[in-house]
Amino acid sequence: MNHAPLIRPAGPTVGAHPKRARSTLRQLAGLAVAIVVCALLGCDPVPTDHRVVGTVYIDEPRVPNWPLPQVPDTATAGVPLEITIWTVDTGCRDMRQGDTEVTALGRSAIVIPYDILTTYEGGFLLTINDPGCFGTLDACEHEATVVFEEPGTATIWLLYSTLGGPEPEDNTADGQQVYTVEVLPAG
User: Fold this and answer.
1) Best CA proximity match to 86, nearest among 63, 109, 110, 61
2) In contact, 160 and 175? CB cutoff 8 Å
3) 170 in helix, strand or coil?
4) CA distance linking residue 81 with residue 149, whole number of Å
5) Each residue's pLDDT tens digit, 21-51
6) Other CB atoms within 10 A of residue 151 CB
7) 160-187 pLDDT, tens per residue?
8) How many CB atoms sit inside 10 A of residue 144's CB?
9) Burial classification of residue 28, based on how many CB atoms lie within 10 Å of its CB (0-12 exposed, 13-18 middle, 19 or more buried)
10) CB 77 within 8 A of CB 151
11) Can you spell out the DSSP letters for 99-144?
12) d(CA 127, CA 63)
């Protein structure tokens, strides 16, 4: 009576060349080492710049001494009116000053300060609201110029972000402050 063995003898499978089996094991071991090294060292994240609406603190209880936007109460028709706005960087995200967009029509103007937010694919940053963020608040000073050609009462809408999160979509123009300026006749 012929019996099949229940336990196979140790060694390569029938027909496999012993050197080829060792080569495959070495390749797998090398791949495992490469994966572990990459996981331990991390890979460099890829930076991407995004133009986002700047975060402005107006009546923010956590930051009582933050500078408020400076908008004069009066202007002269045909003469540039200087406006200064400070946007905030929490120090826990990669942010720098961008441009300021001004759209004026008649006695109305919309002012939007923009900053540049750099995000990193594969990386992450904290915000001031995260318990692990101990960054300092840094200001980006934005200056804007508005020219009202007609005398009378003018309105300036300042649009800004109130959240200022780490992702570009967190920085929308969800805040609005309205300023009234009396435009005097030239001369």
Assistant:
1) 63
2) yes
3) helix
4) 11
5) 566 666 666 666 655 555 555 566 678 899 9
6) 16
7) 998 777 778 888 889 999 999 999 999 8
8) 22
9) exposed
10) yes
11) EEEEEEETTEEEEEEEEEEEEEET-----TTSTT--PPPEEEEEEE
12) 15
Tokens describing residue 15: 């027909």
Using one digit for the tens of pLDDT, what is the confidence trace for 78-135?
A: 999 999 999 988 767 778 899 999 999 999 999 999 999 887 776 555 454 555 566 6
Angle at 98 between CA 93 and CA 99, to 5 degrees: 155
Q: Which stretch of DSSP H or E encloses residue 19?
A: helix 18-41
Residues 184 and 105: their CA atoms lie apart, in Å, by 17
C-alpha span between 17 and 95 (Å, rounded):
59
Task: Locate 168 and state its tokens.
Answer: 């570009």
> Looking at this protein, which amino acid is placed at residue 169?
E
Place of tokens 């209880």: 61
At 126, list the tokens.
Answer: 């904290």
Is residue 85 classed exposed, middle or buried when 0-12, 13-18 and 19+ CB atoms within 10 A define those classes? buried
Say what the pTM is.
0.70
Q: Return the residue matching tokens 């028709």.
A: 77
Q: The tokens of 169 are what?
A: 């979509």
Integer-rounded Cα Rg, in Å, for the chain is 31
